[in-house]
Amino acid sequence: MSRALITGISGFVGRHLQRQLASLGWQVYGFDVRAQSENVFVGDLSDHAALSNAIAQCKPDVIFHLAGVNKSDSPKMFY
To answer: Rounded to 10 degrees, what is the CA torsion of 25, 62, 28, 49?
Structure first.
């Protein structure tokens, strides 16, 4: 069974990708700022330790990077 880690799993595209991969028999994990379902690690991508921990625990075969900011009052958030 293949394992995937999806950053931004609670977003529009992340949710759809999660369902599609699960329907194909993949074991799907997520990394997001909010917990959406089971197998989701909660954290910010700028937190290297949290992201490294998630990768070490789920040992993904592939990582889909879908996390991002689409609006913010702080321009630094887009960086």
So the answer is: 160
